[in-house]
Amino acid sequence: MKIAIIGAGRAGTSFEMALEQVGHQTTLLHHDELEHVPVADLVLLTVPDDHIAEIALQLRERDGQVVAHAAGSRSLDVLGPHARVGSMHPLAPLPSAHRGAARLLGATYSVAGEALLDDVVQSLGGRILRIADAQRTAYHATASVAANHLVALLGHVRELAETAGLSLEDFLPLVHMALADVVELGPDEALTGPASRRDMATIDAHLAAIPESQRSTYVALANAAFELAEERRSQQPA
């Protein structure tokens, strides 16, 4: 399949490499090279979400060509005048071309629109999710929490570790064990620690020991842990 990718950032370069690996003919272009877009079966927009509508309006319409985007929170409406449209958003972080391309192979994708996108995802060995437009923003918010907020949380762990004279690496085995417990047991049963046992004295001691700049994050996460613990208790037999 001939695929033109517009947007040469981390997502675009990841898609180019992955699609080439499974046999597609790809052309990667920057957003300001629209006059050079070749005749293609699919034009995939991997530009920032806020620029999709603008680029779609500038993109030449061609009979039979599918125009799609890779944005998780946008519907097909942003693709404007094009007759055949679609979207394919991967549930995978793409921090670099090589790492991103490896993750796109076999990833889960939210797919909408033309059936051609199903063929592309299947060629990548991917799994397809169908998301209603009304649920799309909530879906993308969940993806952002699962990936981006987890990374931010580990940034918080790094700051606290340094306060204790240690490093993030010292705590990564604990992170891996906690995630393994979530996979095997689910969040409710995996929760441990002071919030799970209503140990306010320990939490107060934590807050006194950590930098003031980190306390609001700690409190927000402790409150979330309290809520999870309460939900677990409410589901237990009396």
Describe this structure in words.
This protein has 238 residues and is α/β, with parallel strands linked by helices. It has two domains: 2-131, Rossmann fold (3-Layer(aba) Sandwich), CATH 3.40.50.720; 136-235, N-(1-d-carboxylethyl)-l-norvaline Dehydrogenase, domain 2 (Orthogonal Bundle). Helix content is 50%, strand content 14%. It is built from nine helices and seven strands; from the N terminus they run E-H-E-E-H-E-E-H-E-H-E-H-H-H-H-H. The protein has helices spanning 10-21, 52-58, 97-104, 116-123, 136-163, 168-185, 187-190, 200-209, 212-235, and strands spanning 2-6, 25-29, 42-45, 66-69, 84-90, 108-113, 127-129. Strands 2-1-3-4-5-6-7 form a seven-stranded mixed β-sheet, sandwiched between helices. Strand 6, helix 4 and strand 7 (127-129) form a beta-alpha-beta unit. Helix 1 (10-21) packs across helix 3 and helix 5 (136-163) packs antiparallel against helix 6. The longest helix is centred in the middle third of the chain and has 28 residues, at 136-163. The radius of gyration is 22 Å and the shape is elongated. It starts with a strand and ends with a helix. The mean pLDDT is 95.
Core attributes:
elongated, 9 helices, Rossmann fold, single chain, 2 domains, N-(1-d-carboxylethyl)-l-norvaline Dehydrogenase, domain 2, alpha/beta, 238 residues
